[in-house]
Amino acid sequence: MTPPRTGDLGPLQDGSRAVIIGGGPGGAAAAIALINEAAALGRQIEVVIVEGKQFGDDLHHNQCAGVLSPPIVELLEDQLKLPFPYHLQRSLISGYTLHANGSTIQLDGGTDTSIALRRVQFDAFMLASASQRGARVVPARVTGLEMHADSIVIYTENAPLKADVVVGAFGMDEGTAAFFTELTRYKPPPALSSIVTKYHPGENAMQKFGGRIHAFLPKDARVEFGAITPKGNHLTINIAGIGVTSPLMDNFLHSTDVQTALTGFENAGRYDPLDLRYFKGRFPRGLARHYTGDRYIMVGDAAGLVRAFKGKGINSAIQTGVRAARVIMRDGISASAFGQYHTANRDITGDLPYGQAMRLLTISAARINLMRAVLKAANHDERLRRALYDAVSAHRAYNQVVMDILSPGSVKALIRAFLSYFSFDHD
To answer: What's the pTM value of the predicted model, to 2 decimals?
Structure first.
């Protein structure tokens, strides 16, 4: 292989090296897409993934709930030419049960089935697939960066690496983000914190629970939403909000809505001594600032390129990883060339205001107990019920969800429910 080119901010050519910081779905997808793009263009490049976590053998816990929703199969098979790992499937998610202040509604998506799996196993699959395609995986953490006109130097716990371009796929890792913040105009995205735990209620209880995710809109202003997700032989339980804590998770688990969803489970008993341990994480609730620049580009959570309110982070990570690779190989690695990346992601960034508006309206309605009226209206209006399903599952863009909510039939149903609520129903 010829020596790496220096000083060129055009598309990667023979001998160029791309270093990807982070081996999760976004980083692995970027690596596979870079290798596929290079092969299609007849170029030989080197792709290196730096990942300090160990995804196998239960050595690392990922706080993601691990639900893969459409079009995840098409993303892997069509965009990456990678067979979907159906063998990792734990449960099929057929719908949602939404709880709000004692009221519930069943939300079904028809054929829009999601797949629940263990996130660390999916991460291991993606990283192994990137390695099999030709990416070199460095099992180490990044310890520093140097930005130069002709290259970037990445210091790791092992040997340093010199790269023509760096892809930031490090999620919400504050340490790695700080290196870029110090050397560039990059600012990490605003974030919510989350706490997740798991519970093994036994086989009979799992069969009773079924293949539905139970989503919760608590009245406590500190918790934006919670969920219970079936995962084969156990339930994953999580909450999210700005600064959620273990006492808030305790309160959530003992709340009436959650206890109602788990009715009968207390007799099943736990058989896993590691149940109900809490893990804390973070995920973005908005865009990062200056997430591209000369020789660097961020994907997925590091860029804040996720669906507002519900995230759908795995899909967005893979999608943005593929888009970053295409721009790197076809347009270049300068700040100007990465304008194409911003254009490619307009489906995500353009929908953020709608998603953020939905988030604020939903949270506010839950706080003042209006979600009971909304659920009542949705029980009588199919279009509103579908809008709630799409809002909870993030299966459709939020601008489409907002249009459904503002349709004449949905507005009439909401007005009738609000009038009834204020006249008779509320305490």
So the answer is: 0.91
